[in-house]
Recover the amino acids of this structure.
């Protein structure tokens, strides 16, 4: 029971990362690698602020701001500097590693006896692991509602059009570089926020906590898409949150099967690779038809 | 004499091709009056598309001035010029956002060149208006308002592109062989619809075409481009007297 609640809580918290990634990977169609630097950047900034006595809400907000800053740098490199997005992201990610070390001062900083957003009488009165479910629910609900509202504004539609068809967008007077920078800032802001919240949930920030985050975010997006199929934009946002929770359940099952936690990242990568190849297998071997027919031996 | 809608003054456009400068437009001078519907003919490489790209701001002109509705736009970017210019391309894929619906595309086009802020998009309020508009195309577009444009037929997409280009009346409409990718029947339908939109809104329009019959039948003026220059310019009566064989002379010069 505790394991299930924990998986839901973690899924909700990590869903912020999936939502951030959705803006670049899916809407803009940008392979933004900044993410692996932004996530620990948000965590570092948040933890450093907390250990210096900042209020938890302020530290969390700073994590969002830090992420936006990282996104801005990638965006300016890509649009004004004409560096390919993939490379721009890798450059910022690499640079951020040093920045994060500077901010943290060492490779790992604990939040033991430091007040965080999880420090409240209400949250501490809940049964174990329910605190991350509640915090995750609140953040996910607010972020999904704000994103859904934003994407329905004129600006949001211009942003979607930029990702869908940049040439047409420019012909309609939409400044596509501005939209791309905005998308990268918003996306990385959310990812920094996710880093800050997860650091508080874990009780520490670690310099290596960004490794593999892209896979986790993509897993949430893609599992959501595979599970729910054709959806409207707003539904897709909710599907990402569900996908993120499903992903935690998959990991939970894998763990229950007796795999070592050290193999987690390999397993994550394999699971995601399989899920991504599903449409190809589907076309080639007609899995669904085969399943419907039942496994009958023809010859 | 009324103020011209479009003035091109001594336009020279050069691009680099394999590191060699290549002049695509040479000393182009042109004035269009409001309501002029000009068909543009020329062989491949004559500079038709370059002319459009230069006017729309995709390619910078090395010399000269471009004035639209009395406003000098020579230094403006493509995005800034979108306030005044709209364009329909030959390739149906170029005109619409494939994953967005017909209605969403129309809404984007309605705000062409306007500042886009955090105002709600108010899609529902426009649906009835868009349905009526799409019904004019005569190809069932009004039933597809909620369909992503990637699922439409080429004819429907081009009709939609034309609607989008004329939804907010442009100072200049550029049609770049917009019927060329369609079958003859759909192409005729779209040309008729184009004529209706242009007449109804009194649009100033330049239309590139390879279809000589269309070039003769439509518009009040005809330009022939050759090697980056305007080789011929037929006005009203001259154009009315033109025949197919006159035009063919430009394309198959007698030896």
């Amino acid at each position: 029971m505790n394991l299930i609640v924990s998986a839901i809580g973690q899924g909700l918290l990590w869903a912020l990362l999936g939502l951030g990634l959705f803006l670049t990977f899916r809407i803009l169609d940008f392979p933004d690698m900044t993410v692996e630097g932004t996530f620990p950047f948000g965590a570092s900034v948040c933890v450093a602020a907390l250990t210096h006595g900042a209020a938890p809400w302020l530290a969390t907000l700073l994590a969002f701001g830090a992420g936006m800053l990282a996104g801005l740098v990638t965006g300016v490199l890509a649009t004004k500097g004409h560096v390919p997005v993939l490379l721009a992201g890798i450059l910022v990610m690499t640079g951020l590693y040093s920045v994060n070390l500077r901010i943290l001062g060492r490779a790992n900083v604990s939040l033991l006896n430091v007040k965080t957003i999880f420090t409240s009488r209400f949250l501490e009165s809940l049964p174990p692991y329910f605190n991350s479910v509640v915090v995750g629910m609140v953040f996910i609900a607010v972020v999904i509602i704000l994103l859904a509202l934003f994407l329905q504004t004129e600006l949001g539609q211009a942003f979607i059009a930029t990702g869908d068809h940049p040439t047409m967008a420019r012909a309609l007077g939409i400044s596509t570089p501005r939209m791309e920078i905005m998308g990268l800032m918003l996306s990385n802001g959310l990812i920094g926020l996710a880093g800050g919240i997860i650091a508080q949930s874990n009780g520490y920030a670690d310099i290596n906590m960004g490794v593999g985050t892209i896979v986790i975010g993509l897993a949430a997006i893609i599992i959501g898409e595979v599970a729910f199929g054709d959806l409207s934009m707003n539904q897709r946002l909710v599907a990402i949150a569900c996908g993120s929770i499903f992903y935690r359940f998959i990991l939970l099952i894998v763990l229950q099967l007796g795999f070592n936690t050290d193999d987690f990242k390999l397993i994550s990568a394999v699971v995601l690779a399989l899920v991504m190849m599903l449409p190809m297998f589907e076309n080639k071997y007609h899995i669904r038809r085969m399943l419907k027919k039942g496994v009958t031996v023809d010859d | 004499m009324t103020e011209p809608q479009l003035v091109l003054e001594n336009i020279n456009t050069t691009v680099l091709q394999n590191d060699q400068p290549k002049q695509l437009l040479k000393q182009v001078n042109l004035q269009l009056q409001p309501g002029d519907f000009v068909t543009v003919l020329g062989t491949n490489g004559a500079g038709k598309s370059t002319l459009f790209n230069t006017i729309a701001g995709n390619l910078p002109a090395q010399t000269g001035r471009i004035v639209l509705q009395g406003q000098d736009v020579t230094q403006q970017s493509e995005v800034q010029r979108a306030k005044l210019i709209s364009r329909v391309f030959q390739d149906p894929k170029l005109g619409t956002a494939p994953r967005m619906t017909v209605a969403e595309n129309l809404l984007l086009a309605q705000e062409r060149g306007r500042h886009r802020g955090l105002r709600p998009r108010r899609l529902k309020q426009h649906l009835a208006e868009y349905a009526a508009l799409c019904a004019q195309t005569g190809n069932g577009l009004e039933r597809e308002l909620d369909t992503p444009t990637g699922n439409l037929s080429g004819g429907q997409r081009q009709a939609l592109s034309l609607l989008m280009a004329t939804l907010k009346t442009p100072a200049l409409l550029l049609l770049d062989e917009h019927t060329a990718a369609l079958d003859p029947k759909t192409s005729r339908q779209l040309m008729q619809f184009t004529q209706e939109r242009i007449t109804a809104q009194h649009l100033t329009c330049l239309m590139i075409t390879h279809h000589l019959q269309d070039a003769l039948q439509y518009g009040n003026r005809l330009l022939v481009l050759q090697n980056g220059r305007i080789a011929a310019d037929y006005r009203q009566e001259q154009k009315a007297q033109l025949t197919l064989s006159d035009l063919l002379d430009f394309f198959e010069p007698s030896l």
Notes: The mean pLDDT of chain B is 90. The first strand of chain B starts at residue 6 and ends at 17. The CA atoms of residues 166 and 197 of chain B lie 7 Å apart. The radius of gyration of chain B is 19 Å.
